[in-house]
Amino acid sequence: MSLIVQKYGGTSVGTTERIGNVADKVAGWRDKGNDVVVVVSAMSGETNRLIGLASDITDKPSPREMDVLVSTGEQVTIALLCMALEQRGYPARSYTGSQVHILTDSSFSKARILDIDNQNVQKDLSAGRVVVVAGFQGVDEHGSITTLGRGGSDTTAVALAAALKADECQIYTDVDGVYTTDPRVVSDARRLNKITFEEMLEMASLGSKVLQIRAVEFAGKYNVPLRVLSSFEEGEGTLISYEDEEMEDALISGIAFNRDEAKLTILGVPDQPGVAHKILGPISEANVEVDMIVQNIAEDSTTDFTFTVHRNDYDKALDILKQSADELGAREVNGDNKIIKISLVGVGMRSHAGIASKMFETLAGEGINIRMISTSEIKISVVVDEKYLELGVRALHEAFELEKSPQ
Amino acid sequence: MSLIVQKYGGTSVGTTERIGNVADKVAGWRDKGNDVVVVVSAMSGETNRLIGLASDITDKPSPREMDVLVSTGEQVTIALLCMALEQRGYPARSYTGSQVHILTDSSFSKARILDIDNQNVQKDLSAGRVVVVAGFQGVDEHGSITTLGRGGSDTTAVALAAALKADECQIYTDVDGVYTTDPRVVSDARRLNKITFEEMLEMASLGSKVLQIRAVEFAGKYNVPLRVLSSFEEGEGTLISYEDEEMEDALISGIAFNRDEAKLTILGVPDQPGVAHKILGPISEANVEVDMIVQNIAEDSTTDFTFTVHRNDYDKALDILKQSADELGAREVNGDNKIIKISLVGVGMRSHAGIASKMFETLAGEGINIRMISTSEIKISVVVDEKYLELGVRALHEAFELEKSPQ
After folding, report:
1. Cis omega before residue A101 (within 30°)?
2. pLDDT tens digit sequence for A334-372
3. Of B53, B80, B120, which has the smallest distance from its Cβ to A57's Cβ?
4. B87 touches chain A (CB under 8 A)
5. Residue A113 belongs to domain with CATH number
6. What is the pTM of this model?
7. Is the ipTM reported for this complex over the cut 0.90?
């Protein structure tokens, strides 16, 4: 007998009929002898309806009251799912975040979980009940309702799984797993049976939006095996866990990409200690997030400095950089907001040489000019002109034979 | 400076625009230097929408989960009202029943308030905040959400006013006060400035459905002055309090009536101790509520026994009564479900004789046959054929000059 924490998102519980389907799924896991804790989101559309009511009233809703408002969305779902389970003969009990009790800090709308007291949940599980918990919400030390931010139900599920020492945390969603790359770009992209937490983090942050990145971090930190699977189709989904001996022997797990990149370059900056901070400090103070950073020392003891930002922040970042260039006595500032990023991700890189050169060779073979390169232990990212996105991803997917299962 | 508890019902907060109007009203009371606690219901239609979702899923929803579900309705309103207040520059803080904390028993969907811990509310009032509380809900000793039953927001307001020792509890509704009788029946029915708790209880239980009867009882018990007034029009409304010297010097405060009555008679019951219990016991065991009861001893030492029930219970009560008649050896059972009840209510009756005879004379003058009479200290009720309702009420309203303000 296993203890399983399951999370069903807004689409999976979007109608009362679908809530009935979720109850059937949960019942199936109970019938196999498992203890089940279910975390649910608000019915799809409900959170937006509530936000709409608030915006009818004010442009600047109080964050505390906004959390009181939107947290009702999940509360509706937990009650309905318990009714559906009991109607099928499965005793169930619902809990709001406050009732569990999921203690968070007081950062309304983006609270972080500090502690989970799962005594009530444990008691109900022992009594043979399915426990249904409202995702995305908690309570602060003053008893105020908090929310973890949009999509935070994944985090609730993982945190509960960690606190309960669950055997597996299953995230049900509208895709049936994690793919080698976006199937809309590469038609023979393949579902991965397994992937490591580290790979998933690199995939997620680079645009494969299957799971909340905080949930993956949390799962990795507390070593909670995480499975992504479809609410609507049968299947094993993708298991996200630590690398083990059974792990597929792949060099590359997947190809992530990001369409909304822009790059900025400051040329001929007199080289001196602290120059990176002088350039990037004002950018970060303006709340612009910097992704890749590359610095070259030129022969005349000046330095060239290039970094990428989200395309929405391009104009703002360019203005700031021009001002810094004046102050630092730099020669020139330029930028390009028609670029994208392609990344190969795989723990296999650690033990295999030659992957980077195969990547560069493949792109060169297609006539794709690389504008920027950045590498980490399990990832190689390149920046190229945006027109090459599909061509580059497809060429790399084929070159590394990702459509085939390893062994 | 006074402490005022206000309650706004579902119609008063039925749209975001109306919630804005409520915020304006509350702001007006704050501007006059009052501390204000506001109790709100769910936006009109919302509770029914939630019940509809539940009935899509099951015919027999768990009462606990039903309360989790419907309590979200008021939670939405408290958040929106706080936003509206803060947008107008009035600091505000919302509380669910559980957050206040309004401790109830565990009778889901019809819980009774056991205790109110108002420390948080007091702290917010001292800090100059408007406190907005979700009506109709509480929390039991296990931390489960409970509801007080439909319309229970009035009870929340009164209970909070009692716990906070408020100067007045104002119930905002869609009528502008308590009237001498239903204005749809008597066009010159007059709004009462004041009425006593006892009169209000008699009026409410007899069909003037302005206020929840439990809320009036509660207010009377804890001596909380209660004011009924309109959300939509200006005006003083009607103050419900204990009799005082300033109280209007009226003989009669109002005329209540009830359309849905039925009467049952058992004739020729051999008179013996306990006969009333033998007749009414089985009726009450069948959950049929009995209103008026009249017993006459006939000359042959048998007794005749008449009582009234709600018209919906007529057939059930008649069946039970026929069975009892057989067992008791009664001569006959008959009934009539085309009757109504008219009641004069007024604390003035206590000190004035002749009111009953004036009532009977007035009805006789219109050719209305009285079928049954029952009196209490502050009420005289008569049962008449249903066709005489309008005629009887109008004649009595005129005879007692209720359209005129006393003095």
Report:
1. yes
2. 999 999 999 999 988 887 778 888 999 999 999 999 999
3. B80
4. yes
5. 3.40.1160.10
6. 0.82
7. no
